Structure formats: C-alpha cells, structure tokens
Amino acid sequence: MRTLRVLPALVSVWVAACRSTTAPPPPVTLFVQNGSCTPAGCDTVYVAGVPNKQPNTPGGIWIFDLGTVTGRSACLLIPASRTFRIIAQPSGHETRIEWTTADTLFLGLTRIPMSRMDAMPTAPGFSPAAAAGWSIVYPTDSVPAPTASCQAG
User: Which among 37, 46, 106, 119 is least buried, having the fewest CB atoms inside 10 angstroms?
Assistant: First the structure.
C-alpha cells in the first residue's frame, strides 16, 4: 500500500522535471482602441514594442513592430520572445540580447510609422507575461491595463 501512495508523488516530480524552465512565456495579446476615430473615419495608429534591454549601438533604439490599427480597434500579438543580434566587424563576434514577455516592454504608439531613430515609448513599461492580455486606448491611456486575452488576427 505504501508504494501506491508514493507513486503519484514520484510521477508529479518526474513530470515537473520534464518541463523546461528556460522556455519563453507564451505570446500575449494587446487590445488597442483607436481614440482618434470620428464619424469621418479613423487615423492609423502604429504600435511598436520597445524592450527594456537595449543594445549599445549608434543606430538608435531597438524596436519591433506589433502592428497597425486602422479602424476603431485591433487585437495585436506581443511575441513570446525576440532576439537582437549584433555582429562586430571585422571579428565577426556575435552578441545576442534576448527579450521575453517576462521582461519589461514599453509601447510606442503614434500616428506616423516609427523608425529606430525616432521611436520613443509613449506608455510606461509593463511585463506582458503578468496577464493573458492587455488593453490600451490611444491617445487617451498612458498605461496599458491587464485584461482578458483577445483574438489576434
């Protein structure tokens, strides 16, 4: 009988040991409401992610495109992870900067497309993995709020 009581505990330990502790968290959704809409239409809102981990390069800050909002709202996907690679010349030495949704992300929301040189976060940083989804109204909100996941398309 004792063996039967110990067996479920051993199976639990074995299953936990097989899970990866280095795997990135899952992607997270971002529901963006376009506050610029009028009866005549909506301005396009460009949404970029600005990781808290930044390379020390002269080319501007590291951003990645999260998508555009052309109507009243859109559900965008914050990827689970991103890697920034720097290859030194002439040595060819590669440096990698890893970002995951467990790290801090800043949002850049503008009415014009952003480049690495002019992207400035418009909202305080947040850890996307802290919620299944996030919501923000541009240009009204200054901070994204945790919410249920939306359906990214």
Answer: 37
Domain count, the chain: 1
Rounded CA separation 75/80 (Å): 16
pTM of structure: 0.77
Range of 108's domain? Answer: 24-147
Of the candidates 30, 7, 45, 9, the one whose C-alpha atom is nearest the C-alpha of residue 79 is 30
Q: Residue 79 domain-assigned?
A: yes
Instruction: Return phi, psi of residue 55, to 5°.
Output: -75, 155
- Contact (Cβ atoms closer than 8 angstroms) between residue 137 and residue 33: yes
Q: pLDDT (tens digit, 9 = 90+) per residue, 62-89?
A: 889 999 999 999 999 999 999 998 887 7
